[in-house]
Amino acid sequence: MDKVNILGVNVDTVTISEAADTIMSFFNEDRLHSVYTPNSEIIMHAYKNPAFAELLNSADLLTADGIGVVYASKILKKPIKERAAGYDIARQVLSKMNDTDHKLFLFGGKPGVAEEAKVKLLQEYSNLNIVGLRNGYFKVEEEAEIVEEINNSGADIVFVCLGAPKQEEWIDKHSKELNVRVAMGIGGSLDVFAGRVERAPEIFCKTGMEWFYRLCKEPWRIGRMMELPKFAAAVITKGKRYKQNGE
Ligand code: UDP
Asked: By alpha-carbon position, which residue is closest to atom 23 of ligand 1?
């Protein structure tokens, strides 16, 4: 798959439907495949934390969840075709899974969210095989039990929705013990599936202004979003170095 190196993070230049097809192909291979969908804040986090950059680069699929990442790829002259957000990819995967026997585990969110998400998802995808649920609030000593719960459920795929970078670190930490074929870190998607959080109206997504919509709805995000101008500056000044070195 074609990749673009954005500040040391190798993002796949795939569309939403290419990403969904790739994930469906992961079911054919008996090993864990990790899927992460970094936005510009997370790429900035990786830029400052080389170990986290390495973790992201070890993923089987890394897509651009954010218009900032898409713009960065254009600046670097290796354009990503479209924003491939975890939520949108997950929707396409669910739709495809609805015609198969693959089993899904929903992990993350506040207590009750995964249960609500299951009800809503089954209204839309009636054949979906949801075999387990677990909220995302736990102590370190409970992690082994969570892994066991996922493994005992017989799930083929787990949506890990703990927010970034927690979900990516959790998947990586347990990658050797998890007996699923796909582990996807998809942030607040369960809240959206559950109907607890509304997605930005399409016009905001299409015009690359979803960040503005989210900021109005969740003003506490301002701190995290202050990373955006730093991200743009770093891509413009440092991006070329990564390109030239072929890193
Ligand atoms: N969350 C969780 N466990 C935690 C921290 C967060 O399950 O310890 C959940 C939280 O309830 C929310 C999601 O992770 O559903 C994070 O959503 P957010 O939109 O902040 O994540 P992003 O998509 O921006 O990474």
From this structure: 187
Q: Is 199 in the pocket of ligand 1 (CB under 6 A)?
A: no
Residue nearest to atom 6 of ligand 1 (CA): 162
What is the CA(246)–ligand 1 centre distance, in A?
34
Separation of CA 137 from chain center? 18
Q: Is 228 exposed, middle or buried, given 0-12, 13-18 or 19+ CB atoms closer than 10 A?
A: middle
Residue 222 is predicted with a pLDDT of: 80
Q: Are 235 and 221 in contact (CB under 8 A)?
A: no
Cβ of residue 117 lying under 6 Å from some atom of ligand 1: no
Closest atom of ligand 1 to 188 CA is 17
Single out the residue of 71, 57, 67, 77 nearest to residue 11, CA to CA: 57
Q: Is 198 in a helix, a strand, or coil?
A: coil
Q: What is the CA radius of gyration of the chain?
A: 17
Its pTM stands at: 0.93
pLDDT at residue 46 tops 90 = yes
Contacts from 120-124 at CB under 8 Å and sequence distance 24+?
Answer: 120/193, 120/194, 120/195, 121/94, 121/193, 124/94
Ligand 1 site, residue 162, Cβ cutoff 6 A: yes
- Position with higher pLDDT, 220 vs 137: 137
pLDDT digits over 75-99, tens only?
999 999 999 999 999 999 999 999 9
Question: Does the pLDDT at position 146 exceed 60?
Answer: yes
Residue 239 Cβ inside 6 Å of ligand 1? The answer reads no
